[in-house]
Specification:
The complex is a heterodimer of chains A (803) and B (250).
Chain A (H helix, E strand, L loop, with lengths): L3 H12 L1 H38 L5 E8 L1 H8 L4 E15 L5 E9 L11 E5 L7 E5 L3 H4 L6 E5 L5 E11 L17 E6 L12 E8 L6 H17 L3 E7 L8 H35 L2 H9 L4 H41 L11 H28 L2 H5 L13 H7 L6 H12 L1 H35 L7 E10 H9 L4 E15 L5 E9 L10 E5 L9 E5 L2 H4 L8 E6 L2 E12 L7 E4 L2 H8 L4 E9 L6 H17 L4 E6 H44 L1 H9 L4 H43 L9 H28 L2 H6 L2
Parallel strand pairs in A: 3-8, 5-7, 13-18, 15-17
Antiparallel strand pairs in A: 1-9, 1-10, 2-3, 2-6, 2-9, 4-7, 5-8, 6-7, 11-19, 11-20, 12-13, 12-16, 12-19, 14-17, 15-18, 16-17
Chain B lengths: L20 E12 L2 E13 L4 E6 L5 H9 L6 E6 L2 E2 L5 H11 E4 L11 H11 L7 H12 L15 H12 L6 E5 L7 H16 L3 E5 L3 H4 L4 E6 L2 E6 L8
Parallel strand pairs in B: 3-8, 3-9, 6-7, 7-8
Antiparallel strand pairs in B: 1-2, 1-4, 4-5, 9-10
Classes of the chains: A alpha+beta (803), B alpha/beta (250).
Bound molecules: adenosine-5'-triphosphate and magnesium ion.
Chain lengths: 803, 250
């Protein structure tokens, strides 16, 4: 037989199951959110590193002109090199199931069976692909629309068609590692073939790409650069030319900036949710304990000392905490698992076997045990301190008997307000401490919800803004360079074409003052003052006509050349030749995953590299403004067939918006993720709101009975309660709206800092606020009606016996 | 082992019986928004063992305030209160709670049972709080007390499942849980019909016969004059103190 005082604990727990469920749900939902946040944060960081290191990634990647097999052998012997592999990497066009021709990068490996570096993970089918077979990376598989066993049509540069069988689907985490071509999200579909197939595809059996893994210090990029310098010298001694070089530590996944951004958001959200659930729990226990004042008085009358009574309630809270933890832990692990799977697929990382994160479980347990106790302690102490006489005197006096505040008086004198509204108003403002706590909880939850929408909009805004680097309708690539004026004349004859620009481009190695290659950059060279680029300048200015060797660099340059800015000299090696440029400005592009990009003018690059006014890339602007993606694609097809009829060989005629789309897919991952987080906070907020409202109404069960006893109809009673619920809902919404602005700023800074090391203007969208308004009104009404209906159903005798 | 059985009767042979409850110049002043209000204006009173004291007076006279002084539920503004030789006005809340649990059984007009506990547990709770709880023995004693108020069949019901008169009997049983020498009842029959009130009063008489000292606030003059002593309170002062011995007794 257990002691009667513990029996009371159990009776409180079991006796009012609805109330207990509300309390447990309120605690659990906060724990749940925190569990998810910490688990995601930990596993994303950990698995992205370990998952990438596990593929044995290349630490350096070089584009080399005429890389001989004998050179490869020599590279393997270079001090500090553990292993080296060569490949031929080239682009073709593949026919997607939709009938569209899309670019595909083919990676041909000589000894594909024994590939040691950048090991792919087989997802489906077979590895390695045999002669005339192709394996495809899973990420852009949908774009191609093919499956294992299907035949894929490839168009060779001379226009002829070859068909390869898809032998397997793989995951290649190294996509985007070199940063050329804009990183993972900009990379075209990837195919993997054996070098045996090269001749059949009309390609020379010569390698143009070198992958090297270092023997040790694979996490130290400085060390890798030193080894890379020795490798380069070996190549050059053997007659090769290094066109570009990039280095990457073994634990630095190409998309790590996205996990960093996600983690930053998670940290901000986590901190906010900890505060939020702290308030939620405090509020819940305040509500719970106010109902217990009478019983505390009785217990004191019959001999209960403060410690005994406090122990009873702390045990009750302890059990609530433990139950909430037991509920939240498995749910949080389950949800984290699902979210991680989604995110991992989106950012091309490989998850290790899911293991619960002990730190997350401990934090949850700590919060479950400590926060409720801390939150409950003060109300318990207050309850115990209330004199017996006050506690047991039939009518409970909540708080001190103070005069009504001026606000209350003003509210009471709202003459024209209908009666139930008056009663509700008075109730709402009666217990100011509790009201404040409720409002803080609800507004914080709402504000986080609204803020996630604002951050999403900021990212969308940024995406739109980045689009202005890619303003052309068609990006045209020809098989070989032509004189710019020739193509312009030919294309501008078409009525659909308004303007044609010839753009030059080059890959260049960025040289540091110690002559080591820091990394490689893409140089884009539109005509000076081209209207097709509207840069986001961080400092300095854009390249203009008449500038001599002027260059504008993307934000990433600061990572490898700290402090570089306008006026500084930049040394770039293009095709093995060192060139000198004057930096005129720094601009912001798509951040760390996007690789290095620099802009100069066509004239400058033309002069420096000696293209003789020839190029194979052109930007075309349509006569009709504001073309959709579909319209652009149509125009592309038209231009392509037109040029073919004129005897030009077209490599690609891509719609401008596709480029924009690819650039920003990475950011879309973030917006999707933020939406999920918004739903999570909405869940916390909603359950908190429901719980708080319901407890508030339950607390007044007796009062409702009295109202009914003095003649209020059930309808009237429910009306009063709903009006009060809605009132709290509206006030909390207004506060949430205001509070969402600083929180939006905090969160968008966290995202943009992780991606760009720069902040971006915070945007505002009404969507979040509108949804939250609707949710707040709906939830507060529902949360008030249910307990009010229950209260109204009780007989007056039951009500008066109710505690 | 605790029993409802009489304690040794007070020694009547002593020339000067010692007072069990002594109030000396007790003043109670309430401070509220409307200003100060003096509810007790210097009350001095001795209550002797074995007395059944009825306290009567108009509403607002200060009856509840007075008995709250004796139970230690409220503190006097000035004056002294000695119960069984213990100066309770000097005790803090916790000391008072323990002292009260062992020395005074309190019975309220509105019963004040713990709503979520069974009748049996309600009666055992004071034993638990005051360190007199013993596995099995406590339950036996609680059942015994329930039997004494003729409610043992309802032992496992919740208070909301029985009538008001039954609840008051449970409250009495609870007040007796720790076998205190003093019982204080504030309008114990105020919410009951006259027949039920009579059964409650009969229990009180039996308890006094068994040696308890009982102070009962009441509005019911017919009950009051059956007490061994009637104290009249008006406006925070004692206006009458009589011992209508034998009068009105059946
Ligand atoms: N907490 C309090 N604050 C201020 N005044 C109080 C308080 N409690 C009682 N009073 C006042 O003290 C006076 C005596 O109150 P008390 O409750 O003792 O009266 P009572 O004789 O028990 O009345 P009733 O028969 O109605 O129960 C009353 O005028 C009452 O208004
Ligand atoms: Mg009274």
């Amino acid at each position: 037989m257990i002691r009667p005082r513990w029996y009371k604990v159990l009776a409180d727990l079991w006796g009012n199951r609805v109330r207990s469920s509300l309390v447990i749900a309120s605690i659990a939902v906060g724990l749940f959110a925190i569990g998810i946040i910490l688990t995601l944060h930990t596993i994303l960081q950990r698995d992205m590193r370990s998952g990438y290191a596990a593929i044995h990634p290349a630490n350096m990647e070089m584009s080399v002109l005429s890389l001989r097999t004998t050179t490869l052998e020599k590279v393997r012997g270079v001090a500090g090199v553990q292993n080296a592999e060569a490949a031929r990497v080239f682009n073709l066009r593949a026919k997607a199931r939709s009938g569209e021709w899309v670019t595909i990068t083919l990676n041909a490996f000589p000894d594909i069976k024994n590939k040691k570096i950048n090991r792919p993970k087989l997802e489906e089918g077979n590895w390695p692909p045999h002669k005339r077979q192709i394996a495809i990376d899973r990420y852009k598989l949908d774009e191609l629309g093919c499956n294992v066993g299907d035949w894929l049509e490839l168009e060779l540069p001379d226009g002829s068609i070859r068909t390869m069988q898809v032998s397997g689907v793989i995951q290649d985490q190294s996509i985007g590692a070199s940063g050329s071509g804009g990183g993972f999200f900009m990379a075209p579909a990837q195919g993997y073939i054996s070098a045996d197939s090269l001749g059949w595809l009309g390609q020379p059996e010569a390698y143009n790409q070198l992958y090297v893994a270092v023997a040790d210090h694979a996490e130290d990029e400085e060390h890798i650069r030193l080894v890379a310098d020795r490798v380069r010298k070996t190549i050059e001694k053997n007659g090769g030319v290094v066109l570009s070089q990039s280095v990457r530590a073994s634990d630095n996944h190409p998309n790590s900036s996205y996990t960093l951004a996600i983690s930053n958001v998670l940290i901000v959200l986590g901190a906010l949710v900890v505060v939020l659930s702290g308030f939620l729990i405090t509020n819940t226990f305040q509500a719970l304990l106010v109902q217990q004042v009478g019983q505390i008085g009785i217990m004191k009358t019959i001999g209960g000392r403060s410690q005994q009574i406090i122990a009873i309630y702390l045990s009750l809270i302890f059990i609530f905490g433990v139950l909430a933890f037991a509920l939240a832990l498995p749910l949080a692990n389950w949800a984290s698992r699902g979210l991680l799977k989604f995110l991992a697929g989106q950012i091309n990382m490989e998850l290790q076997e899911f293991r619960p994160v002990p730190a997350a479980a401990f934090l949850m347990l700590g919060l479950a045990l400590i926060v409720p106790q801390a939150a409950g302690f003060l109300p318990i102490l207050n309850g115990v301190r209330i004199s017996v006489q006050e506690a047991t005197s039939g009518i409970r006096q909540t708080g001190k008997t103070s005069r009504p505040s001026r606000l209350e008086q003003r509210l009471l004198h709202l003459r024209r307000a209908p009666r139930p509204l008056l009663v509700s108003l008075r109730n709402t403002f009666r217990s100011k401490g509790r009201l404040a706590l409720t409002l803080i909880t609800l507004s914080l939850g709402g504000a986080i919800f609204i803020a996630t929408f604002n951050v999403r909009t900021s990212i969308d805004d940024y995406v739109t803004r980045v689009g202005k680097y890619f303003l052309a309708d068609i990006n045209l690539t020809l098989e070989r360079p032509y004189h710019v004026r020739e193509i312009q004349k030919s294309l501008e004859a078409l009525p659909e074409v308004k303007m044609v620009e010839g753009w030059a481009s080059a890959r260049a190695e960025i040289l540091r003052s110690d002559n080591l290659v820091a990394d490689s950059t893409t140089i884009l060279a539109p005509p000076a003052d081209s209207p097709l680029v509207q840069p986001i300048l961080l400092e300095g200015r854009w390249v203009s006509a008449g500038d001599h060797n002027a260059i504008a660099i993307s934000e990433r340059f600061s990572d490898i050349l700290p402090g570089i800015g306008p006026g500084d000299t930049l040394r770039l090696r293009i095709n093995g030749q060192e060139t000198r440029w004057t930096v005129v400005g720094r601009f912001q592009l798509v951040g760390k995953s996007g690789g290095y990009v620099a802009y100069t003018s066509f004239e400058n690059l033309n002069r420096t590299v000696g293209y003789a006014n020839r190029t194979n890339t052109f930007r075309v602007v349509a006569s009709q403004p504001g073309l959709t993606l579909q319209g652009q694609k149509e125009l592309g097809r038209k231009i392509e067939s037109y040029l073919k009829s004129q005897g030009y060989n077209v490599k690609e005629a891509a719609a401008g918006l596709t480029l924009n789309e690819n650039t920003t897919t990475g950011l879309d991952v973030l917006t999707t993720f933020l939406l999920i987080m918004a739903l999570l906070t909405a869940l916390v907020g909603s359950i908190g709101l429901m719980g708080t409202m319901s407890l508030n109404v339950m607390e007044r069960t007796r009062e409702i009975g009295v109202l009914r006893a003095i003649g209020a109809s059930d309808g009237k009673v429910i009306q009063i309660v709903i009006v009060e619920g809605l009132l709290i809902g509206i006030i909390s919404w207004a506060l949430a709206f205001l509070l969402s602005f600083p929180i939006s700023k905090l969160m968008s800074d966290a995202v943009f800092m992780a991606l760009f090391d720069a902040s971006w203007r915070s945007s505002f969208t009404p969507i979040g606020s509108v949804i939250w308004l609707a949710a707040a009104l709906l939830l507060s009404a529902v949360a008030s009606i249910l307990p009010a209906r229950n209260a109204a159903r009780l007989t007056i005798r039951e009500v008066l016996a109710y505690e | 082992m605790h029993h409802l059985d009489p304690q040794p009767p007070p020694c009547e042979s002593e020339s000067e019986p010692k007072a069990l409850i002594q109030l000396r110049q007790v003043v109670k002043r309430y401070r509220s928004a409307g200003g100060e209000f003096t509810a007790l204006k210097g009350i001095s009173l001795d209550i002797y063992p074995g007395e059944l004291v009825g306290i009567v007076g108009k509403s607002g006279a200060g009856k509840t305030t007075l008995v709250n002084m004796i139970t230690g539920i409220d503190h006097p503004t000035s004056g002294e209160i000695l119960v069984n030789g213990v100066a309770i006005h000097k005790m803090n809340e916790n000391q008072l709670a323990l002292w009260r649990g062992r020395t005074v059984g309190v019975i309220y007009q509105n019963f004040q049972l713990m709503p979520t506990l069974s009748l049996l547990n309600n009666i055992m709770l004071p034993m638990d709080f005051c360190g007199l709880w013993q596995r099995r023995i406590s339950a036996e004693r609680a059942l015994e007390l329930l039997r004494a108020v003729e409610l043992e069949d309802h032992a496992y019901k919740l208070p909301s499942a029985i009538s008001g008169g039954q609840q008051q009997r449970v409250a009495i049983a609870r007040a007796l849980a720790n076998d205190p020498p003093i019982l204080i009842a504030d309008e114990p029959t105020g919410r009951l019909d006259s027949v039920t009130a009579e059964t409650i009063f009969q229990i009180f008489i039996r308890l006094v016969e068994a040696g308890k000292t009982l102070v009962m606030v009441t509005h019911d003059e017919s009950l009051a004059c059956r007490a061994s002593r009637v104290i009249h309170i008006a406006d925070g002062q004692i206006t009458g103190d009589s011992r209508p011995r034998g009068e009105g007794e059946p």
